[in-house]
Amino acid sequence: MPLMKVPMADLAAQHxxxxxxxxxxxxxxxxxxGFILGPTxxxxxxxxxxxxxxxxxxxxxxxxxALLIALKALGVGPGDEVITPPFTFVATVETxxxxxxxxxxxxxxxxxxxxxxxxxxxxITERTKVIVPVHLFGQLAEMEALQTLxxxxxxSLLADGAQAIGATRSGKPxxxxxxxxxxxxxxxxxxxxxxxxxxxxxxxxxxxxxxRLFRFHGSGGGYLYKExxxxxxxxxxxxxxxxVKLPKLAAWSAERRDNACFFRSELDGxxxxxxxxxxxENVHVYHQFTxxxxxxxxxxxxxxxxxxxxxxxxxxxxALHLAPAYAYLGAGRGDFPESERACAEVLSIPxxxxxxxxQLDHVAASIREFFV
Length: 372
Ligand SMILES: *Cc1c(COP(=O)(O)O)cnc(C)c1O
Description:
about 375 residues; alpha/beta; seven-stranded mixed sheet; binds pyridoxal-5'-phosphate
């Protein structure tokens, strides 16, 4: 049995090529003595806003806090309903519940794994305050249809862009959509820090001011507290590291797309799997390259790949309406069939820029071998 290690993430390899720059950036912050916000963070925020095509970017503690602060900035609180997909990372839903609002689930489009605007429409009530699409796996959601719905009902749009930095849709960048977009710099995200980090993008000056206040105890920095806020700031070490990596992001995304292209040509027509579907208007950044594995074979394929040294991941094994923490919302099995089916079928395979051609060959050959 041929064995070759193929990881889902290899941060040591990513950092090896940048080591001198990273060491200098870290030393610069240590020497400056400024660790929380300050000029290093501001300089990164400016570069980030520009690269995402947004007017403002604010660095915060992590991607979950980014969602919490963005929801706060939109005024979400008790009595409000917030529509989200149940097929997402828990943070999208958890932050709504933490603010005392009610998460309302709407099912996904089986092609893209993203929120289905038709399903969202059915869930809108007079209490709906925000729609939260998730740009899952690195492909933007159906933002025009969602914006039309939001506008028609006076609802805000907050996009969870944790997996989609660098993605575009109809030629427009990530930051051009929604009232607010959140990002995560969790180390294995497409742009990762050496620790936790997150950001919030917006083109709206009033929302920008609220975000600036909320991330810093509702004062924005001084001792005059205008709002009840939180303490969630990007630190200068992370900003300096991210600033070294940001100029590499476009090339890394292109390499992920090249790897996706390779898998499409190698695996097209393989019986038993469906390759990820990318809408023609989207430029995908493949945070994950996610197969659907049919006939209940997903876990067997995962184990088979593991025996050949190929890592893979199930994002996500259970839809959130079925998680014990969210049972109080009253949904049960069968209520969101596309999300539940996705949970049973998805398998993400290695797609990172650092993969070598022999590693890519090994992944594709191992998958084909499973189905012969
Ligand atoms: C990673 C992620 C988050 C949370 O980011 P953290 O930085 O880990 O808090 C939120 N939503 C989605 C879709 C994510 O993938």
